[in-house]
Amino acid sequence: MEAKLKKELGCAMLKATGHSGGGCISEGQSYDTDTGRVFVKINHKSEAKLMFDGERASLEAILKTETVKVPKPVKVVELDTGGCVLVMEHLDMSGLTKYSKQLGEQLADLHVHNKRQLEKIHKEQQTVGKGAGQMEVAVVEKFGFSVPTCCGYLSQKNEWQDDWVMFYCQQRLQHQLNMVEKSSGDREARELWAKLQLKIPQFFKDIVIVPALLHGDLWGGNVAQCAMGPVIYDPASFYGHSEYELGIAGMFGGFNSSFYSAYHEKIPRAPGFENRNQLYQLFHYLNHWNHFGGDYRGSSISIMKKLLK
Fold first, then answer.
1. Which residue among 7, 86, 187, 200 is buried most deeply as judged by most CB within 10 Å?
2. Distance of CA 90 to the CA centre of its chain
């Protein structure tokens, strides 16, 4: 692998450092090269290239907004032995302790970035004799993403749709429930979903949703800090409802009150937030059910019952 990396990166020196890491999906290792230190994520699954292509595109999209720090991606390299690696900038990171407020502010800036770009274009178009200039960052008016991404190791479609509720029901919840059906044929889940999908539009009455660029998997294990401030990583990005981001954020801890206060100072809670937050957590419980098995069945069923009351 190291010989392949040297060739692909065009470097003469590649030396493993003492820095390594990884989670339940991929392994990681830092290397010193002649052009600086890089971090290499390694995955040997057959879906590794799709996963890393999605992560690279996600990191690039967030980077372009200049709102919240992410590691800069370098290259996706397919291994001769199977699997794939994602090479990115090495950052000296530690657990998030003193930058929670800044993370809340910067995450909100990420979420309103596309809205501000849209407003800027519309304002320019209304100015006599002035058309919309060339903008470095894509302006997006639909929900989806340019490539598939993976939340964990399971791929998720990001085909562009005009309607957020349709996108979320079809490409997130239905997709997960199809996998549940295939693996376990869970009758209760199937019956609850048949009722819930009819009720979901009610949770979105009287709110306007502008596509927001999301990290997509923002739990406590995907945030950290470096000397300059907060860092987020391992994204599964797409353009969706900003509230979606706070679903998994509230499930496993890791975010304190200063994070939420700073975030909601910039993006206040809209009416009906609590029900939608549960609806967004449902995706992640289903995704965990499909990754790790029936331990997450109870939470998935419980949320569907609660939302149907």
1. 86
2. 20
How confident is the model over 6-17, as pLDDT tens digits? 999 999 999 999
Phi, psi of 62 (to 5 degrees): -65, -40
Say if CB 307 and CB 275 are below 8 A apart. yes
CA distance 97 to 5: 34
Confidence of residue 134 (pLDDT cuts 50, 70, 90): low
* Distance, CA of 2 to CA of 22 (rounded, Å): 18
Catalytic residue among 32, 162, 186, 217: 217
List C-alpha distances in Å: 41 to 113, 171, 245, 250, 296: 29, 27, 24, 27, 27
Contact 284, 175 (CB under 8 A): no
Calculate the CA dihedral of residues 289, 143, 61, 126 and round it to 10 degrees.
-160
217 is catalytic: yes
Tens of pLDDT, residue by residue over 69-106, are 999 999 999 999 899 999 999 999 999 999 999 999 99
